[in-house]
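Record passed on underneath.
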Amino acid sequence: MLISNAVSRLSPKHTARALKTTAIGVAPAAIALVFAVSLSQIMMNSGNNLSGMPSMLKVMAVSLANATGLGYIMLAVFVGILGAYMAGSNTVSNILFGGFQFEIANATGLPKTIILALQNVGGAVGNMICVHNVVAVCTTCGILGQEGDVIRKNLVPATIYAIVVSVVAAIAVFVLKIQMI
């Protein structure tokens, strides 16, 4: 920003205003990201203990892997959607659930790259129903108070998209035998 300021020859007053606006805009996302990364690190590193117990993430992942088996490939994208819905972004969804998805892939023998790709796609799809994105859209379009309707209407294409992506992934793995890392 300082380089672009020098090139565009903005006054110090305009530069200060731009820095303040940027800081105000980035602050909520930065705060959410700090807590999401912290939670993710606690969950991943809880296995570093003297008791020899596995991490929380691994225990949850192995439990779900045992319950779903190879059928988990049909659920992975929905975990990404849930993460984006709860956290508000694909990035935070990936931070929170990427390790979880990786551990499930390990436990089930499903290809890690495909499961992590489904996580990422799910996080992107989840932005369609993410509360703060819907509020921003409703504010921009002047339809405040209709956020619930927008989320309900977006659930249909989000669900269809998630099912199609899951089926394509299942075909890639089980029919075409694509076994990436």
The two ends are 40 Å apart (CA to CA). Helices lie at 2-8, 12-45, 56-68, 76-87, 90-108, 112-126, 131-141, 147-175. The first helix runs from residue 2 to 8. The chain is about 75% helix and 0% strand.
